[in-house]
Design brief:
The chain is built from 12 helices and 9 strands. It is rod-shaped and about 115 Å long. It starts with a helix and ends in an 11-residue tail after the last helix. With 278 residues, it is α+β, with helices and mostly antiparallel strands.
């Protein structure tokens, strides 16, 4: 290893360029040398060499000694000892930072919301949310859009995540608790909404919400609690509706669903109620 390489590495560990050069010169000298000799051997300017040696002495990397002619000379702390000292100091610094840096962290001043304007980025961000799930995962969408997320959802289920999905259409590869949306056909819902909705929520802490048509995609990722809560309840509402429908299937639920005037108004495609998925 060259002298230049060694001095460069010493600088990375905290020495100045002059300090590193002076220390290496002391090591190479193998005997006490004065400031003039250090300057000549190291290239440190004579005008600053004693200041540089003083800094080395101050950090314990060199020592002043008296030579045979009673002049002042300098010797280095042996390299192995220097490196051990540097290692201890580095470890202490890391320990202090591990203890103190987290205490400086503060909650983000604003919640994150960013737009997703292409289908590929919408699906990729949804995959990120699926992968991040640790406890529960809520998903809702059409099979064409959910298929790309199925492998990640299956891996999430295998690691113990509770996966709950609503699928608008035939689901040939169900994962977790899958509910096929039956009340209002997928075609009717898509026509009513003017798009296919995709909703993915992990641990009630982050969500991707998007709309897709044949020629346009919009979407967003958010960790805003209000938006995430709305997304979760959107999926939970559809699941709950189907649980109720199954429970009361033999007690006139179909007639109630298709004949009740209030529900028919909610399912209408025009006016302020546009967007009901039921």
């Amino acid at each position: 290893m060259s002298v230049q390489h060694v001095t460069g590495e010493l600088q990375r560990l905290g020495m100045s360029g002059y300090e590193a050069k002076a220390y290496v010169a002391l090591v190479l000298a193998a005997e006490p040398v004065n400031g003039y000799e250090v300057a000549k051997r190291s290239g440190v300017p004579r005008s600053t060499v004693y200041e540089t040696l003083g800094k080395l002495v101050g950090r314990g990397a060199a020592y002043e000694v008296r030579t045979d002619d009673d002049s002042v000379g300098y010797v280095p702390l042996p390299p192995r000892s220097l490196l051990e000292r540097m290692r201890r100091e580095f470890d202490r610094t890391i320990q202090v930072l591990e203890d103190e840096l987290p205490r400086l962290a503060t909650p983000p001043p604003v919640r994150l919301v960013h737009s997703l304007a292409e289908r590929s980025t919408l699906i990729e961000r949804a995959e990120d949310v699926v992968t991040a799930a640790e406890g529960e995962l809520y998903m809702s969408g059409w099979p064409d859009d959910l298929d790309a997320l199925t492998p990640g959802a299956r891996r999430a289920e295998e690691r113990g995540v509770a996966v709950r999905r609503v699928v608008f259409g035939d689901d040939g590869d169900p994962v977790g608790w899958t509910t096929e949306h039956r009340y209002s056909s997928p075609e009717a819902v898509e026509e009513n909404l003017g798009q296919r909705l995709l909703v993915v929520v992990a641990d009630r802490s982050q969500a991707v919400i998007g709309g897709l048509t044949a020629d346009r995609t919009w979407g967003l990722y958010t960790d805003d609690p209000a938006a995430v809560l709305l997304a979760v309840d959107y999926v939970r509402h559809d699941i709950a509706m189907h649980v109720v429908a199954d429970r009361y299937a033999d007690h006139g639920f179909d007639e109630f669903w298709t004949g009740d005037q209030a529900l028919r108004r909610l399912r209408g495609s025009a006016g302020p109620d546009r967007g009901c998925t039921g």
